[in-house]
Amino acid sequence: MVDEVWEARCAALWDRLGELGREEFVQAMKDLAAECGPEDPVALFEVGGAHDSTGYTEIAVGYYERAIAAGLSGVRRRRVSIQMASSLRETGRPEEALAMLAEERERGSDEYDGALAMCEALTLAKLGRDREGLSVALVALAPHLPRYQRSTVNYARGLVGQDPI
Prior knowledge:
Elements: H1 4-15, H2 22-34, H3 41-53, H4 57-69, H5 74-90, H6 94-106, H7 113-126, H8 130-141, H9 149-159
Helix pairs in contact: 1-2, 2-3, 3-4, 3-5, 4-5, 5-6, 5-7, 6-7, 7-8, 8-9
């Protein structure tokens, strides 16, 4: 069962990612997740992330799918969409990744909007749609600029043939 103590232990394990070998880190995360039960969505998500962060991207996708099916919610639900889309993009399934990102964008807005846009921009580039990817990245960047927000958005829109706002 995931509780504050488990969450703290999970965070501490993530802090050790650079110290541990790939297999050792993944096994440690699997061991921690086993305390929660085989279909705990948070545990599945974390094991997926452990695989993803250590180069086992294809295996990560399966864990991410199981986490979603098990009812993953909250901020981790948003994160799983970004992470899984990135994994899909890198394992030769960029169209699926783009569809997942579009679906996630429809779910709402939060502090992960920039990460979602980054993943979308990279996916569009992977598909050879660089101008669209650049447009997405510029629109995401615009609110963070000290000036030129409107002109940045308008230039970004122009890259893909949209009218200025």
